[in-house]
# Entry
Amino acid sequence: MQLSRGQKLPDVLIITPKVFGDERGFFFESFNQRTWQSLTGRDDQFVQDNHSRSARGVLRGLHYQIENAQGKLVRVIAGEVFDVAVDLRRNSPTFGQWEGFHLSAENRHMVFVPPGFAHGFVVLSDYAEFLYKTTDYWSPQHERCIRWDDPDLAITWPNVWAPDSAPQLSAKDSQGSNFKDAEVYV
# Structure
């Protein structure tokens, strides 16, 4: 595995697995706790795995938990997404900044979004299957959402929806707060 860091958000990690392939297909180890600790220097314990499938133009996020903050190790196993992390740590030098990453079944990259960040993605392919490990359990009473189109964050999402329309959002995501009004981490 190789590790690199986000260009704008160096606390966000990009992991590229070592893939073994031939005419039969491929194999790679997608997670190993010892390798994770050795590679990242982090002692994260992942407690939950999640799997979602979404159609082209579906946008999920920007999600976070104000308590029981979750770190997320994310990857795509089918299709392609544009994945976004936003630093919500008030005392961070990158507070309020975002960075986006193209994740696909083809490039097999994984992104670690640490606790203290909001996270979201939009599907670029006909559909995408998205897997992620979390460092804390889902806590619905602490879940928060920031608007995908917040003017202060000014995220440059790839436009995969029809002209004069918007991405497909859940009811919860369509009610997201503005960044300036959002609860953030100290």
Remarks:
- The CA atoms of residues 34 and 43 lie 9 Å apart.
